[in-house]
Fold Fe2OG dioxygenase domain-containing protein.
Amino acid sequence: MSTAEVLQFVNYGIGWHYEPHFDYARKETTEAFKELGWGNRIATCLFYMSDVEAGSATVFPPTGAAVWPRKGSAAFCYNLYPNDKGNEFTRHATFPVIFLSKWVSNTWIHEHRREFHRPCGLTFDAEM
Ligand SMILES: O=C(O)CCC(=O)C(=O)O
Ligand SMILES: [Fe+2]
């Protein structure tokens, strides 16, 4: 994938967590990702590389969804609607690790070169 960021590896120790955030650049951060020249982060793919005994779920507060890490599994989500607007429901966080540690890797896929895989639309719910 030529317009995806290189895999980022993260190891969370006990108590480590991640505050709620969006992976895509919000309207007010107009300079974000400019140096890459690939547009905004259209999607996130998060790979779980370890089983964790307790804690450390990836949670999506606007929806109440939680993804519990399982080694070898992955979570994928589109961050942007087809009309390029950010999807507020993708705001997410990571619960603190309570026991052992958590390994993940993730990549962020950008908008450019996705025109034929996921065409743009005029509305947020345009056909994909
Ligand atoms: O480790 C997780 O559960 C989420 C990580 C994350 O949201 C990020 O790196 O942007
Ligand atoms: Fe994130």
In short: The longest strand covers residues 102-110. The chain has a mean pLDDT of 92. The chain has no helices and ten strands.
